[in-house]
């Protein structure tokens, strides 16, 4: 079942963890919960577990490799946040800047009709009063306005999508509540405005080229892992545009267009539009955890709790930082990860985690929505990391 597996450090003291990770992957494959995956785990910057398993394309018999690229979906978000933080560190942008300073036409109002006055920091903490279309009813306000979540087949510009987002009343006064949202797409628009470049070019200049990454907003779909979604007996291949229902507590459905990344017409989504390898993600997350790509104070800013456990960003005990959900109360979350661990995922079937206290980073990329993000596999991996 494995296409590749490397332990790049002595098995001890990681032997127990490695065995649990192998078991989690083998179980997910044997139960037909995923088609394929790549899992990387580093300890203080050294890879201690690396495995590719299953198929990148089940029907074509293409095996998964550790270098197989994936559509990132929301794994794009820490890339865009890093780009913004690099601009902040350079003094070109401030977390206290109002969004309208950089995007003068982005002036959403509250339901009472008053100006929203969103700040950059509120975009990064998802407290801007924005939403996602897939979190609303199929006929919700974002659907009526034609808002794109950055994953679908809408061939519109970023400016057009921002205009559609701004046309919908905010769900709350900015800064008053947490709501996962298209805020990172708006942040991508700010990166464009600050740099005077397209988001793909700004991302290359600020993040991917300096870190030596291949991740980008453009890719040939046939070179990526083929996407699948959960089925009753086995994952179902996504053919053309697929609308996949979410668990009821998360929203209605995500509209996937796997060919989007290969077309030049859709806008570059700072929240969901990139593709790349697991190694790209690991190197980016390590730059948040340690090193001098960001200064220590800026890295601390990125992982600090911005919204407490009341957010339940990944369930009870989880708050939110600028980079993802942050573990506030391990007991309430029934988690073996350390307090302050940061984690998030992506709807194409991904999950990642930075356990700052242990110095560990894990990246799980699968080609199966939503098991790879919400299912038993990431739960088992999170538990193993706490060994």
Distance between the termini: 25 Å
Counting DSSP E segments of at least 2 residues, the number of strands comes to 16
C-alpha Rg (nearest Å): 19 Å
Task: Tell me, rounded to a whole number, the average pLDDT.
Answer: 95
How many helices does DSSP assign?
A: 13
**What can be said about the biggest beta sheet?**
9 strands, antiparallel
Low-confidence runs: 1-12
Helicity, as a percent range: 25-40%
Strand content: 15-25%
* Helix and strand sequence: EHEEEEHHHHHHHEEEEEHHEEHEEEEHH
Instruction: Give the overall shape.
Output: globular
User: Which secondary-structure class do the elements indicate?
Assistant: alpha+beta
Write the layout of secondary structure elements.
Elements: E1 2-6, H1 15-30, E2 36-43, E3 46-57, E4 62-63, E5 70-71, H2 77-89, H3 99-102, H4 120-124, H5 141-145, H6 158-166, H7 183-195, H8 199-211, E6 228-229, E7 236-237, E8 242-245, E9 253-256, E10 275-276, H9 278-289, H10 296-303, E11 318-320, E12 325-327, H11 330-333, E13 342-346, E14 350-355, E15 360-366, E16 368-369, H12 371-374, H13 376-385
Parallel strand pairs: 6-16
Antiparallel strand pairs: 1-3, 2-3, 2-15, 3-4, 5-10, 6-7, 8-9, 11-12, 12-13, 13-14, 14-15
What would you say this structure looks like, in words?
The chain is α+β, with helices and mostly antiparallel strands and 387 residues long. Helices cover 30% and strands 18% of the residues. The protein contains 13 helices and 16 strands. It has helices spanning 15-30, 77-89, 99-102, 120-124, 141-145, 158-166, 183-195, 199-211, 278-289, 296-303, 330-333, 371-374, 376-385, and strands spanning 2-6, 36-43, 46-57, 62-63, 70-71, 228-229, 236-237, 242-245, 253-256, 275-276, 318-320, 325-327, 342-346, 350-355, 360-366, 368-369. The strands form 4 sheets. Strands 1, 2, 3, 4, 11, 12, 13, 14 and 15 form a 9-stranded antiparallel beta sheet that branches. A 3-stranded mixed beta sheet has the order 7-6-16. The longest helix has 16 residues, at 15-30. The protein is globular and about 55 Å long. Residues 1-12 have low confidence and may be disordered.
């Amino acid at each position: 079942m494995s296409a590749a597996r490397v332990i790049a450090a002595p098995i001890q003291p990681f032997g127990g963890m490695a065995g649990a990770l192998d078991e989690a992957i083998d179980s997910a494959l044997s139960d037909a919960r995923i088609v394929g995956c790549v899992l990387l785990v580093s300890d203080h910057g050294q890879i201690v577990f690396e495995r590719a398993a299953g198929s990148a394309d089940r029907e074509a018999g293409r095996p998964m490799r550790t270098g197989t690229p994936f559509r990132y979906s929301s794994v794009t978000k820490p890339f865009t946040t890093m780009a913004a933080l690099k601009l902040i560190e350079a003094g070109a942008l401030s977390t206290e800047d109002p969004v309208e300073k950089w995007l003068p036409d982005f002036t959403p109002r509250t339901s009472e009709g008053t100006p929203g006055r969103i700040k950059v920091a509120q975009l990064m903490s998802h407290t801007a009063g924005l939403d996602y279309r897939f979190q609303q009813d199929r006929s919700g306000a974002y659907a009526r306005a034609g808002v794109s979540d950055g994953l679908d087949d809408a061939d519109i510009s970023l400016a057009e999508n921002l205009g559609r987002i701004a046309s919908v009343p905010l769900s709350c006064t900015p800064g008053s509540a947490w709501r996962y949202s298209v805020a990172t797409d708006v942040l991508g628009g700010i990166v464009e405005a600050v740099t005077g470049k397209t988001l793909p070019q700004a991302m290359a200049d600020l993040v991917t080229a300096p870190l030596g990454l291949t991740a980008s907003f453009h890719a040939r779909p046939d070179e990526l892992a083929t996407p699948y979604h959960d089925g009753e007996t086995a994952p179902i291949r996504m053919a053309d545009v697929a609308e996949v229902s979410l668990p009821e507590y998360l929203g209605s459905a995500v509209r996937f267009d796997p060919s989007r990344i290969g077309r030049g017409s859709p806008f570059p989504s700072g929240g969901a539009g990139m593709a790349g390898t697991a190694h790209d993600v690991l190197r980016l997350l390590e730059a948040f955890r340690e090193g001098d790509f960001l200064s220590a104070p800026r890295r601390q800013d990125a992982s600090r709790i911005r919204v407490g456990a009341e957010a339940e960003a990944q369930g009870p005990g989880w708050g939110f930082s600028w980079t993802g959900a942050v573990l506030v109360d391990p007991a309430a979350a029934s988690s073996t990860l350390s307090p302050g661990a940061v984690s998030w995922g992506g709807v194409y079937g991904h999950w990642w985690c930075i356990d700052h206290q242990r110095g560990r980073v894990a990246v799980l990329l699968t080609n199966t929505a939503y098991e790879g993000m919400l299912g038993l596999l990431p739960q088992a991996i999170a538990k193993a990391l706490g060994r």
